[in-house]
Specification:
The protein is an all-alpha fold. It is built from ten helices and no strands. The longest helix has 24 residues.
């Protein structure tokens, strides 16, 4: 059997990018990385963008700690993005986080199967929020009527937070898939506020 040539590697769809050496990155990046309680592979890979590393970590922290939308609703949106984009890393990373926030197994399954309208799995406000998130993913926005319907259940601030969550996790999905980042799922859901 012939050995794979270097040319074969150029036509393979598998991407293998080593994580950066943080000891060679700027001081602010090294310090921010050092202070992370959980150094997940996504954060490690983002070290390849040292100019964006600190702001990405700060945005991640804001999404986990400072939004007004509940952790429960936020995690439903994260799972919606992971299912829509078919990103195993994002889904697996949020299994325990979403469970700690109160997402039930039947809701995981309904989201994974593309059933956000399932009245047995979701209450009316949850179905509206999932439609809102799905519309952003599919159309780039929530049309006016849907937005107004969502406002009967959520504040403007919560819906603003929802758009940020969907946009952030879509960007994360693109990054994870492009760099083929290895899964290192959370086991304790300890990123929940508090």
């Amino acid at each position: 059997m012939a050995e794979a040539s270097r040319d074969d590697d150029m036509i393979s769809s598998k991407v293998v990018i080593d994580y950066p050496d943080f000891t060679k990155l700027p001081d602010d990046v090294r310090e921010k990385f050092k202070t992370l309680p959980t150094k997940v592979n996504f954060f490690r890979m983002v070290g390849h963008s040292p100019g964006a590393f600190v702001p990405v970590i700060d945005l991640t922290n804001a999404i986990f700690r400072d939004l007004t939308i509940s952790d429960y609703h936020k995690e439903m949106l994260v799972l919606l993005v992971a299912a829509h984009e078919d990103v195993a890393y994002e889904w697996e990373q949020h299994v325990t986080i979403a469970q700690a926030a109160g997402v039930r197994p039947d809701q995981f399954i309904a989201i994974a199967e593309g059933r956000p309208e399932d009245a047995h799995a979701f209450k009316d406000d949850e179905r509206v929020l999932l439609r809102f998130g799905r519309s952003i993913l599919e159309k780039g926005k929530a049309p006016g009527v849907l937005f107004k319907h969502a406002l009967t259940h959520f504040s403007v601030q919560e819906l603003s937070d929802a758009v940020i969550v969907v946009g952030y996790y879509r960007m994360v999905s693109n990054y994870l898939q492009t760099f083929d980042v290895d899964i290192d799922a959370q086991r304790d859901g300890n990123w929940i506020k508090g």
